[in-house]
């Protein structure tokens, strides 16, 4: 709603929407596959050279390694055990693509990570993520206008980073 884009429609292995924003043209994709096949939605994109950085793609991903109600922008890096990111990496042929990691907190004791991320969020956790949406939108707009480094510098501090965040800024 923020950018007044048309409704999502079916496009290959994803639902897509796109159009002009004050920050440039965007093409949004929501994979319609299982998480571990998310890369199928990106089949048309691929790094043309080993180590090439893909700068015009931002992957949004849930991450139980950081607390609910926080997010972190990253310029690239390993999948860190996240099957969706492993699939994206395989489709792109590189780990060098920016991502916005949205904290969903650790899985409760005795619950597998797989089961945890597939279950609906509890009301309190959902509210915490929804309250982050305006700030995450600002972060995405900053990334579009000024690049990942400036967006990280400006928003990773505001995003209340986890003390045990495995990836340094």
Assign the CATH class. Alpha Beta
Q: Termini, distance in Å?
A: 30 Å
**Strand line-up of the largest beta sheet:** 1-2-3
Order of helices and strands: EEEEEHEHHH
* Share in helix: 25-40%
Number of strands: 6
Note the beta-strand portion: 15-25%
The structural class is: alpha+beta
CATH-defined superfamily: Peptidyl-tRNA hydrolase
Main sheet attributes: strand count, strand direction, barrel closure = 3 strands, antiparallel
* CATH second-level architecture: 3-Layer(aba) Sandwich
Task: Please tell me about this protein's structure.
The strands form 2 sheets. This protein has a 3-stranded antiparallel beta sheet with strand order 1-2-3, with no helix packed on it. It has one domain: Peptidyl-tRNA hydrolase (Rossmann fold, 3-Layer(aba) Sandwich), CATH 3.40.50.1470. A hairpin with a 2-residue loop joins strand 2 and strand 3. Helix content is 28%, strand content 20%. With 169 residues, the protein is an alpha+beta fold. It starts with 8 loop residues before the first strand and ends in a 14-residue tail after the last helix. The chain contains 4 helices and 6 strands, in the order βββββαβααα. Helix 3 packs across helix 4.
